Amino acid sequence: MHMITEDLRPLHAAAVRATVGLVARATPADLAKPTPCAGWDLAALLSHMTVQHHGFAAAARGRGADETCWVPAPLGTDFPSRYADAVTDVLAAFAEPGVLDRPFVLPEFGTDRPFPGRLALAFHLVDYVVHGWDVARSLGLPYQPAPEILAATLPIARAVPDDANRLAPGAAFAPAHPVPPGTDPLTEILLLLGRRPGPGRVPEPGRAAA
């Protein structure tokens, strides 16, 4: 991962808050829809996104090693408000003084070695720029983060290792796809992290892709 020296928290907060509006557009009837995350319907994706916010918040507060903080819960009909609460939790944790220099334990990254807070924030930023697209794609909604958010996220996406770990069950990202010359920043981020951007929404199982 490339060296991160700047404070990305304002851009991170804007990117994460934008996902609240997307999730608020979903209804209980949408939860069975497929997503770009292989094997996950929208319910599974939103459950993952919600618990990850709480997990990163716990890590920011020194409790990341508690694996119960990372166990997703089934969604209820109040999932939009629960998701918004999770966003409030993680942004409050990342706003605490000194958090960028704290050690973060993130067991889902497959190591007990702590990560510097700046790097943990970068992980969370790239994850939610991509997951915002995942939700929008599932619902057939437009999605275009601000240019400054994409400019901060692209170097992080380029630095994510494209190795055999991406083939493991439950890997966060699929193997990267080729990036044609002149590709716009959002599309490049998605291709680098194994997504297949294109028009429309994710096709229902058994139907041809858009």
UniProtKB/TrEMBL annotation:
Q: Name one Pfam family in it.
A: MDMPI_N
Which Gene3D superfamilies does the UniProt entry name for this protein?
Answer: dinb family like domain
Q: Which domain of life does the UniProt lineage start with?
A: Bacteria
Alphabetized SUPFAM superfamilies for the sequence: DinB/YfiT-like putative metalloenzymes
Mycothiol-dependent maleylpyruvate isomerase metal-binding domain span: 13-136
Instruction: Give the NCBIfam families listed for this entry.
Output: maleylpyruvate isomerase family mycothiol-dependent enzyme, TIGR03086 family metal-binding protein
Q: What is this protein called?
A: TIGR03086 family metal-binding protein
